[in-house]
Amino acid sequence: MSSISARNAPAQGIAAPAQAGDIRQEDIAHRTASAAVKRSYAKVGDHWIQRPGI
Fold this sequence. Notes:
The protein is an alpha+beta fold. The protein is built from two helices and two strands.
């Protein structure tokens, strides 16, 4: 565990249960993950291929 992760661990443990199930947080997480995938991969038909140069 890095020093940054170790410092943030207590705060993450407190904040996560308070926001568990918050639909807005889930929506933001889903959109962020989708954007990250789309930066590295392109959808061709019904499957994803890695973009060239990445």
